[in-house]
Structures are given as structure tokens and as C-alpha cells.
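Hi P.,

Sorry for the delay on this. The queue was packed all week, but I finally got your sequence through. Input first:
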Amino acid sequence: MQISLENVTKSFGSDLIFSGVTARVEDQDRIGLVGINGAGKTTLLNIITGALEPDGGTVTRGSSLSIGYQRQNAGLQKGNTILMEMRSVFADVYALEEELQKTAEKMSENPKDSALTDRYRELEDQFLARDGYQTQVKINTVLTGMGFAEHGFEKSIDKLSGGEQTRLAIAKLLLEQPSLLILDEPTNHLDFKTLGWLEEYLSSYKGALLVVSHDRYFLDRLCGKIWEMEYGELTVFPGNYTRYTQLRDERNARQQKLYEAQQAEIARLQDYVDKNLVRASTTKMAQSRRRMIERLEAEPAEKPKARMKPPIIHLNEYAAEPVKDVLAVEDLTVAVGEGERRRVLLSGVELAVERGDKIAVIGGNGTGKSTLLKCLLGNHPANPEARVTWGRGVRSSYYDQGSDHLDGNLTVLDTLWEAYPRSYETPLRNMLGAVGLKGEDVFKRVSQLSGGEKARLKLAVICLAKSNLLILDEPTNHLDLGTKEVLEKALLEFTGTLIMVSHDRYLLDRIPNRIIELADGALHQYKGRYTDYLRMASGKPALPPKQEQAPAPPAQTGYAKGKEQRRAEARRRKDCAEAERLVTQLEREVWQLEQQIASPEAAADYLLLQDLCAQAEQKRDALSKAEDRWLELSEQ
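Then the structure:
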């Protein structure tokens, strides 16, 4: 066990951040921590690292716990070179190596000094225990994998960009190998190659891993457990991100069903009490049901909390279909700069896009992805001999990954009005509200918006355009997980044509039917999605699509009433007494299960909660049937 949290609570002033947080990090855990901005993820990490103390609860740390926590640009010494920074991790090893060399020199001068020989053996044992002969190999492996080979290891840290310094901080933590490695958005600023290397490295990491990330593909490949922080509560789900979304939806559906069933049961019991309390033959039964109502109302089933309302994105409302051949590109050269500074990124580009195609453009930084889109749209000059032909009836919308085209002096509402000057205010405000820009937000200046808010504003512009062709450049940048899921669903349902540039591998593995990779100044095309591209790019054939199997319908059970033919009165009394005992027993069992469902242990363990809810539902069914049987025998 690395660390254990038991009923941990934290507040800042009168603001409760979270309460009742109970979870454990085991030695080999791979945990993804998810939740909207402001949910308390960073506060929880600071409590785990000891930077903050909880207001209540217990934090228990393992005896061998060592924590490495990656923050943006943290843990680097200014003035150091890249290699110096990595060598600082092994300062003790280099000190041992230096002392070994000095001892060896003394031994050569005094070969008969047994004390020097003993000291040399002692130092060598320590050096071997620290795997000293592999130190430089480890440094070279990690720096190369994290993309620093091209820089040269003697480059000063001060000359690295912010993103490069973050990558170097991660590399340093990987070399330190703490027993609990905590990474905060580690996939930012990483290209596909570096991401793949990091995932492979972390998959065999010897310690535990706790990751905060919006990269769903990364969470899918790496994590075996998801911690969800929402409404001040932490819920633990087994499995990767995709499994988490399934279990989360199932849990919410089950909680809603349980809540509705309890409300219906209370109404049914109350109706019976109202009708039968004054009848002599059924008074006892009515009193029993009234006690059941009191217990149910004392321990009500929790109504599922509404998830943070995601935006509403509809892209399918376009007026007309274009012709079959949407786009034809021949002999296109993509270049940047002028004169001596002119640099060709792509040459001889040939591309055909048909109606309904969903194409994803990928490639390393600087390969010309965004510039290619601008050339297709006529926003960037192309070579004179190039032919870019758009089909008749094509109506396109362009999502630029930057926000430079937005006028920072305009308000949010005025930005939409500038795009759609003939529209009335109400439909524009309705659209802004649908993407989460509500109330006074519509009067904010664009320059005051966060990156996520600007992204939602650009999506609102596109939703109103009713285009049959979408050209999207990094559409998921700055979006939270909930908005990413909504946009993914909208793109899946979009029946028009799509050309997008994206680094979001989760999106790339669900949306496109064709992948275009820009590499070595050329365009390479692959059929299928991102997983198919990976296989074909490595020389393996694409896998056939999986066939979804419909789940088998649940077995149906029934209740067959016994019919007594003889000894009716004696048997009736005996059966009535047995039925009454059964009702009392089932009432007690239902009440015990409801107590367990309401406990903090069940709230923190989804599988336990699911099992308890299923048991409670079965017991209530059995109780209802037992009561019906008792009532039947009582009225005979």
C-alpha cells in the first residue's frame, strides 16, 4: 500500500471542496483522476503529497512511500544544461564513481594496502547496487524517448520553451523512479511518437501511477482504475476511461431506477394504507405497510445528482447535399515564407474527397497540417499550377485552432451577430446558452474569455452555419472531457463531410474513415481509424471491425400461487402464519440492505453499491410477493 485516504474532508473558508473521500493507492496501481475544472483534483493531489493538511479524516502513508509530483515547469534548476539536470538525479552515483576512481588510483600507488582494497570493494558493491554502470544508458534512453535528442543534451534549460521544460521535468521524474508518480496533464506538448514512447514506458513502470489528464486515449491505454471527483465526492471505478463512462452511466441509471422505484413503492404502500387501515381484516397488514413507509422515508434512496450540464452541439441541420465529388486536389505544393526563407512543407499533393467522407489529418509539428487546410480554403497562397476544385453545392465552415481571427473587443453576443447580421437576438442567445455561455457571459468581451469559452464560442458559430462540410483544426483543444464527449457524439452523428486536424487519439479512433499522415514532405493515406493506421503504418494488416453482440435478455421469473384443495382452514392458518413470518423477515432484510446502501463504504465503492442495489431490488420483489400472499390468505 502506498497511501490510504479515509473520510478526508477539505474546505477553504466557507467553501467545501470535498468530504468523505475514501480511497487507496496500491503498489502497482494505474489511476486516472478526472473531473471538471474546480472539482478539487489539485487540492486532493496536494493533500496526497503533504503540501496541504486535510480538515478531517485520515491520510496514511506507506513506510516506503516516495512521491514524485510533476507540475508545470517545476523541479528544474535554471542555468543547468539538459544533461546536467538529468545527472543531478544520480548525484550519489557519480559521487561513488568519483570516489571509486580516487580509491583505484591510491591502490595503484599502494598495492599492498588491504584497507584500500576493502574500501574499493565496499564502494563497488554500493555502485553496483545503484546500477551505476547503466546510469548514462538510462539518461540517454529517457531523453531520447522524450524527444530531446534533436536538441543536443548540452542545450541550456533556459533556452527551452515552456512545453519543453515540462517534458524535461517529466523525464527527470521518470529517472528518479518514485514509488508513487503523480503526473498533471503529462500529454500536453507531446507528439504522437513521444506519446507512444511515454505510454510504453509507464506501462512497465515499477511504482504506482496517479494521472490527471484530459487525454482519453492515454487514460484508456494506461489506467486500470478511474477516480471521479464530482460534487465534492470521490467515486472509484474499475477499468480504463471507456469502461468508466459505461459504469458511470449504468450507476446513474440504476440510482435513478432505485429512486423512482422507492417513490413508487411509497405511493403504493400509502394507497394501500389509505384503503385498508380501517378494515378489521386488513388493519394489521396496513399498519405493517405504514411502518415500511416510515422506514423508507427515514432512509430515502438518493436521487442521482444531475451531471454538470454539457453543451448541446447539433451539426446535422444543413439545407442541401452537395454533389458526390466534394473536393479534388491536384499537384498542390504547400510552402511557407518567401524568397530565401521559403520552405516547402508538402509537394505533389493529390487528394479526392467524396460526400460523407470523414478524414483526419495527422503529423508532427511543422509538417504543414494547418497550412494545408488554409490552402484548400484559399486562405494561404498555393502554387500557380495547383488545381483545387470544390464540388457544386458545398457549403463549408472552418474551425481555426487559434483565436486570432476573433475580435477581442467584441462581446460574445456581438461576435455571433457579426457572423449572422440578419439573425434576431433570441436564437443567438439560445445557441450561446446551448454551448454553456449564459446570462452575463454573453456580454463579456472575447478578450476576457478562457480558452475553453473561446472554443465554445467558435463551435456556436459553426452550429449556426448549417454547413454540409466541416473543416476543423484541433477542435478538442481547451475543451473539458464532458464537452469532448458531446462534440464526439455530434461528429459521429454528422452525415455531411468532415476534414479535421487533430492530436486527440480518442477522437481519431472513433470518427474518421480515412487517416492522412503528413510526413517527409508527402501525404500518405490510410483507410480506417487511428488503430488501423497504427497497424498499417507498422506493416500489419488492419483488423476487421468488431461485431457487437446484443446482450441476452434477462431470465424471466414468475410466482406461482399454491392452491390448497383439502384441509383448507387448518392449512390456511398455518400458511398465513408462515407468510407473516416471511414478510417480517424480508422487511428486516430490506431495511438492513438500505442501511448498507446509505453507508460511506458503499458510496465509495461502485461495485459494492451495484451489488447491494441488486440485492435490495430482489428482496423488495420477494417482499411484495410475500405481502400479496399474506393478504390473500388473510382475506380468505
